[in-house]
Amino acid sequence: MKQFSKDVLFLTVIGYVLIGVHCEIVYIDDGALEGTVMVSRSGVNFHAFLRIPYAEPPIDNLRFLAPVRKQAWTGMWNATYWSPICVQNTPSSADEMSEDCLYMNVFSKNLTGSMPVIVYIHGGSFAYGDAKSQAGPQYLMDREVVLVSFNYRLGALGFMAVGTREIPGNAAMKDMALVLQWVNRNIVKFGGNPNKVTLMGWSAGAIAVHALMLSPMVDGLFHRVVAISEALAGLRSLPYEYSSLALRYGERLNCPTSEIDLLIACLRDKPATDLVSISFRDHPICATTGGTFYLTIEPELGQERFLTDDPPKLFANGNFSRVPMIIGRTSEEETITAFELLNSPRLDDLNDDFNEVGPYCFGYEGGNTPKSRAISAAIKNYLPFDVIDVRSVNALVHLFGDTFTGFGQHIFVHRINQYIPVYYYKFSYVGRFSFCNNPQEKPYGVEHGDDLQYIFHLNFLNNNFPIIEHSAPENFMVERMTRMFEHFADNGNPNYNDSEVHWPVHHNETEYYLDIGTHMVEKNGLYLERYTIWSQSAALMINGSSFLVGAGCLVLMKIWSRGIGS
Questions:
Q1: Which of 206, 285, 386, 443 qualifies as a cystine partner to 227, CB 3.0-4.6 A?
Q2: Higher pLDDT pick, 521 / 291
């Protein structure tokens, strides 16, 4: 930084001291940051640097494009308050959302240390969510780690792809790549070790973690990964572009569709809220594949490509970042989805014609073909009765959870454990709070996302979970989870105490996994009998399949209409 700027900063700091305002100043490549102080669960003060810009605002002519690194600034950047969240179709008020949203947050209790770094990628179907509400730092700041969270573009704003060099897709994924490049350059200034970076993601964030493992844009920039309740492991290829879907967006917004350039120019003039509010439901009961943009394989057009080939092919061949991994699910994933189906006035349609409606609910090819009918017959083995009704709730919870999370992880784990250490788990501990309660206002089980509350303070999806005090019955789980992730971030192994945790590496022959409940129990064969049903179906899907890729993140899009959780 120029001497003039440092002089100005010195005078600014002196001014703050004279008026009694506490601040922390960190100098990074781009300029000076003024941070603030927050308090951990245990009452320890830690440094918080909020609203750090990592890219230029992706607005006007930069909409839909790969992010542009933030230019250096002069003077002091105020990093003491939260940034707006990215534009999304949620109940958030307009003043809380902005297209200018590419900001990150860094939390550390020791700016001169060399602690392992956890970079958290929020979930939400690549359509909603943000760093603030989903990654409260109060728990992890009682550990020896630096935490990084950030916003990335969502929906069409982050994943528009039309097969041109300028808009090949994956803009949101390139947002994430830019964050990792920023961490590599700057995290040492916050007490972080750039050679011990762990990627952690939940739901769609877990899919992002797996995609980043495949991307040449971030090779060598992270050293462990944690994928919570999702996997990028579908049986069909990703598309190379979404031009037909872009045309549908254009038609919905009255844009010209005769030429791509005219279409894009028109879409750039539309309000961002209009773009994220569009969806195309496949069926009135189940909207699991509702016309959304998603990851894409980028054709070689002279641009820097995020994803160059099919994920299943790359993982199967070992062409990915070979780093230790934690991956797992909750015991009752997608409970809300099951309840929603049972409460649907159109449930009779599914009972009357499962072969026609089932594919839209459970993510396999439709059309009532011989193949789709065979798959329907196979997955009906989940259901104990001829009629789907309230008696089927447990079976539907299993079916939806396996369909949209569990089976994909099963495929993924068995595909990659020959190349890297994989720590596989099921989270089965039922605390007092959940995203899904039964009629007595008690948790039905362990819903999608319930395990996050023991790693982060959560305040999203209309749920403001309380800070878990040391006197609370769930305290031991916060201590356990944060300790395991701290140890994993430090050395790639979550076993921090042999007398308390014995978590073996997964192998296809042994099928080891850890059941994380009131007690931690080493077990074999996670839901293998149930996954066999999907394995039989998968054999039918492999050729010409339309099985969803990472479908678990897509099914959540319909849940916002009820505003009860995911």
A1: 206
A2: 521
**18 burial class (0-12, 13-18, 19+ CB within 10 angstroms)?**
exposed
**Residue 538 contacts residue 414 (beta carbons within 8 Å):** no
Per-residue pLDDT tens over the stretch 113-134: 999 999 999 999 899 999 999 9
Yes or no: say if 119 and 445 are a contact pair by the CB < 8 Å rule: no
CA 554 from centroid of its chain's CA atoms: 11
- Kindly tell me the burial class for residue 233, based on how many C-beta atoms sit within 10 Å of its own C-beta (0-12, 13-18, 19 or more): buried
- Mean predicted confidence (pLDDT) in 8-27: 52
Task: Tell whether the model's pLDDT for residue 414 goes beyond 70.
Answer: yes
Q: Confirm if 516 and 427 have CB atoms less than 8 A apart.
A: yes
The token duo for 163 is: 């097969």
DSSP structural state of residue 437: B
491-498 long-range contacts (CB < 8 A, ≥24 apart) are 492/223, 492/224, 492/323, 492/324, 492/421, 493/324, 493/421, 494/326, 494/423
Residues paired with 136 in a beta bridge = 457
Q: Residue 94: left (phi > 0), alpha (psi -120 to 50), or beta? A: alpha
Burial class (CB in 10 A: 0-12, 13-18, 19+), 524: exposed
**Rg value, the chain, Cα:** 23
DSSP 225: E
| Residue among 461, 498, 526, 64 at smallest CA distance from 249 | 64
pLDDT at 538: 62
Structure tokens at 361: 């609910």
Instruction: Specify the DSSP element, H or E, that contains 176.
Output: helix 171-186
Whether 5 is a known active-site residue: answer no
Name the E strands within 145-223. Answer: 146-150, 192-202
| Catalytic-labelled residue, pool 98, 133, 149, 203 | 203
What is the per-residue pLDDT across 539-551, written as a single tens digit (0 to 9) for each? 655 543 333 433 3
Q: Which amino acid is at 513?
A: Y
Separation between Cα atoms, residue 290 and residue 287, nearest integer Å: 5
What one-character-per-residue DSSP string does 443-504 give? B-S--TTGGGGGTSB-EETTEEPPP--TTSTTHHHHHHHHHHHHHHHHHS-----TTT---P
Instruction: Please choose, from the candidates 308, 289, 312, 288, the residue with its C-alpha nearest in 3D space to the C-alpha of residue 297.
Output: 308
Computed over every residue of the chain, the mean pLDDT equals 87
Q: Residue 426 has which token pair?
A: 């099921």
Number of DSSP helices (H) and strands (E) in the chain, helices first: 18, 17
